[in-house]
Amino acid sequence: MMDKLQAALSTGAGVVALIALIIAEAPFFLILAGMAGVATLARFLYESWTYEERMEEYERKMQSYSLLI
What we know:
The chain is about 95% helix and about 0% strand. It contains three helices and no strands. The protein has helices at about 1-25, 30-50, 50-69.
């Protein structure tokens, strides 16, 4: 059990060190591009998940609008 835990910790530390090295050596614009990509993906997922709710609200507004006319 301790061997697995120790191996997992050393592997995790190695991964963290590798990620830190990549970030330190990566040009600034690549990091910004990656952040922009993540933001775009988050926006797309949000829009996809809330589409039906927004569509139902739109249809309710259109029905009440047509009743007002």
